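The protein record filed below.
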Amino acid sequence: MPERLTEMLMDTWTPLIILWIAVLPSIYMAPMNQSQVLPSGSSTGLKRLTEEQRVLNRSKRGWVWNQMFVLEEFSGPEPILVGRLHTDLDPGSSKIKYILSGDGAGTIFVINDKTGDIHAMKRLDREEKAEYTLTAQAVDRDTNKPLEPPSEFIIKVQDINDNAPEFVDGPYHATVPEMSLVGTFVTKVTATDADDPVYGNSAKLVYSILEGQPYFSIEPHTAAKLHFIIKTALPNRDREAKEEYFVVIQAKDMGGHMGGLSGTTTVTITLTDVNDNPPKFAQSLYHFSVVEDVALGEPIGRVKANDLDIGENAKSSYDIIEGDGMDIFEITTDDQTRDGIIRVRKPLDFETKKSYTLKVEAANVHIDPRFISGGPFKDTATVKIVVEDADEPPVFSSPTYLLEVHENAAINSVIGQVTAHDPDVSSSPIRFSIDRHTDLERQFNINAEDGKITLATPLDRETNMWHNITIVATETRNHSQVSRVPIAIKVLDVNDNAPEFASEHEAFLCENGKPGQVIQIVSAIDKDDPKNGHYFLYSLLPEMVNNPNFTIKKNEDNTLSILAKHSGFSRQKQEVYLLPIIISDSGNPPMSSTSTLTIRVCGCSSDGIVQSCNVEAYVLPIGLSMGALIAILACIILLLVIVVLFVTLRRHKNEPLIIKDDEDVRENIIRYDDEGGGEEDTEAFDIATLQNPDGINGFLPRKDIKPDLQFMPR
């Protein structure tokens, strides 16, 4: 320790001594060579100088100094002498007074006003302030008049190695891919030193690794050696073996020599993952069992291929590459657990196949081409699946049934049969029934033993052509095992409906029609549905075959035309003709019906347009149309209504009122004090006077009673 302290002092003081030796001769020799020395009281001599001499003296300053230096962090019992100010005008007679002003004057730096000595009164730190700018001036001590213009000078604080290097951005965290080559860049580190980088080696830094070798190295990043970078020193570092490294970096000043100060930082280096490991199944053989009635898509087991890598590099996909159940089972990947999930793809049947063997493969999804030579990034395993027996419901011989029956089938006749069996080894007997929710009218029955379906009620194709029912098969040993099958029953047609007119036809015959003119075209319909389509035969009644007025003609489109045999039809002679027509179909046996066509004789225009079909039209004025007649009738009705309203209003206006107002009633009230006299009252007083007081001209008093007051009618 003493040796190190001695070396530090030598490194610090050696430059100062050399600087002191170089500066002192220039300080004390300058007056002799560059300035004149004048008596302290000879101001007249200074005035006698020519202007040329003044210029010369100003260019060669009378002050004796250069830059001054003071050592930082110096402390001692006495203030440290920084330097001395002296002018060639000072003869040493104490007539000159030195004044100091500027940065730190009077506090940090104090000048002896007689000798010009400058002392540092405080301990200085270059890192806080590297230099101080001061102003010196020589004045007459008695008059305080300047003898020289003020001049500035600088006191520089000389650096010592008192600051250790610091890593401002530390500690550091860096990543580098595993399996990287030697010299792969990891990160950059930088240390700073507050000491003077210009003077000495106090800020000259050297980097080294204290911990982390031999895995990493450090070297300058630039020629100036301001930044250093960390690189890998060994190849093929495996993250799966060790993921994190703790590196300690040291920066030492003084060029790394003895006595230099140092600072350290830590760099945590994490190896990032690359896909350098294949997936590996935890076991080479897996055993699973599954019940044969498991639902499709249900998982029956899981397999797991582990991968030492992480993240995307550890993702694997599973596939079935071999086996006797490749079409029965499928395997998918669970994104959360990264397991392979085996599911049922098709129904299982214990009675058909009791076990399966599969070969599954797990392969990495993302493969790094740099490591493809390391081998296939996949693995395989064998999966054995045992199918267990389950009590299954009955199985019908067909998933659906289609039955056909003629609509005239007899009651209780067999229209079809369904069959079912128990697929289990025990083979339980089966009983059949009809789901009555699908046969609400109970048109069908089924034999519970053999599944024969019979007809319970008559069928009508024209009412309902299709019947859909459901047959239920139940095991007799276990009633919970039930199966259902849909039955579609088609009702076939038989010729049981006669044809008839498609609509109620009414034909109109013009009085001015011509012989052979088509009066009407009629068509027929049949509710039956023959395979070859409808074909109708039309004929007149036998007794009307020789009808003198009309005849019929069959058209190619299965319709019938009605023709007039002659002209000269008259409404006055016969207004309406009825023509019965027989319509027959081509069924076996054929069905027929008779429909009557109404033919009405009408008056027509010359163009054959029907205008009127009533006999009363003859009595109407010639030249008046039907619209004009309706308008005339409406006017007559309107006039009658107006007359009736007028008469009614007149009658109500002339009818007198029984009592006009309250005053009339009050003035015609007569008081009597006697009791009623029975029939004499009605004879003695006219009751009509009370009912209609305006109907008499005078007052008729009772003859047998004298009233108290009498009011004359107004």
Remarks:
- The domain at 166-272 is CATH 2.60.40.60 (Immunoglobulin-like).
- The chain has five domains: 67-158, 166-272, 280-388, 395-492, 500-612.
- The longest strand covers residues 592-604.
- The mean pLDDT is 78.
